[in-house]
Design brief:
ATP-binding, PPAT, coenzyme a biosynthesis, 162 residues, alpha/beta
């Protein structure tokens, strides 16, 4: 059984993330979406909220498991018994960082391979940071994220303003 981990902060999940999820899930028997709880960053949403959003927007997709994690990615992959890490690439700047991380991960755990998928051109510009910035200024984010996520972001932004 080929099991892969697609890690990320998903703060929030975007159509770009969903593109990689859909495409990579066709390549493996099980795709584990690892929702990173990075204590060095202050996310808009808690790990639990991000897991809930991902479960909602992927509920029709088979072969997915969504799990929060912290710590080293290769240790998480090992715990999940995954032999592959999936990473999405938008631009050459992503590649430079991701190549360095994949080489480090390979040194830490040689049995786990990293596979890169380039993001579809429709989403090559898109990031969670951009979505949050547009939302913070009241912009329309419906073309960047599913309706459920857009509604959840608006609710969160409205609570922060009060």
């Amino acid at each position: 059984m080929l099991r892969a981990v697609y890690p990320g902060s998903f703060d929030p999940v975007t159509y770009g993330h969903l593109d990689i999820i859909e495409r990579s899930s066709k390549l493996v028997d099980e795709l584990i979406i690892g929702v990173l709880n990075n204590k060095a960053k202050t996310p808009l949403f808690s790990a639990e909220e991000r897991v809930r959003m991902l479960k909602e927007v992927t509920k029709g997709m088979p072969k997915l498991t969504i799990v929060p994690f912290d710590g080293l990615l290769v240790e998480f992959a090992r715990r999940m018994e995954a032999t592959m890490i999936v990473r999405g690439l938008r631009a050459i700047t992503d590649f430079e960082y991701e190549l360095q991380m994949s080489q480090t991960n390979h040194k830490l755990e040689p049995e786990i391979e990293t596979v890169f998928l380039t993001t579809s051109l429709d989403y090559s510009y898109l990031s969670s940071t951009t979505v949050k910035e547009v939302a913070a200024f009241g912009g329309d984010i419906s073309q960047f994220v599913p309706d459920f996520v857009a509604d959840t972001i608006r609710e969160k932004m409205n609570r922060r303003r009060v």
